[in-house]
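User: Just a sanity check before I run the rest of the batch. Below are the structure tokens for the first item. I only need the designed sequence back.
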């Protein structure tokens, strides 16, 4: 890789990370705390584990990931909507598998905070959340 390619790649990674942080910061009522990130034994892949808190009545924007995601509900009640599937309601102790690339969103339809752990495998060194706000208005 020559110097120009490295500079362009770095700028793209920085821009993607910055735009995601701005998008997340603007979404009031959703807090994502990255707990850990580690390289996997599969070259070019990493695992990311995050805690997500969603305030009552708040929708976490529709998005997708290039890797699979596993969700574990800790507190509250959260409704997940995966494109092409009926909504799934998770209560504490329940889990959900989200296939790679499937757009999804989460809605806290309760009057209490919802908290869950999300673990996903992603391409290393890339922000892997692809926001799809144009689809949020179709939530029933």
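Assistant: Here's the designed sequence for the first item:
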């Amino acid at each position: 890789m020559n110097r120009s390619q490295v500079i362009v790649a770095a700028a793209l990674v920085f821009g993607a990370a910055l735009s995601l942080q701005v998008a997340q910061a603007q979404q009031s009522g959703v807090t994502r705390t990255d707990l850990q990130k580690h390289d996997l034994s599969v070259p070019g892949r990493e695992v990311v584990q995050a805690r997500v808190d969603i305030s009552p009545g708040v929708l976490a924007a529709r998005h997708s990931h290039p890797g699979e995601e596993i969700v574990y509900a800790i507190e509250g009640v959260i409704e997940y909507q995966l494109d092409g599937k009926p909504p799934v309601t998770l209560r504490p102790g329940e889990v959900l598998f989200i296939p790679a690339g499937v757009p999804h969103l989460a809605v806290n339809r309760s009057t209490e905070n919802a908290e869950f752990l999300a673990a996903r495998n992603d391409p290393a060194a890339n922000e892997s959340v692809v926001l799809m706000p144009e689809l949020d208005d179709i939530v029933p």
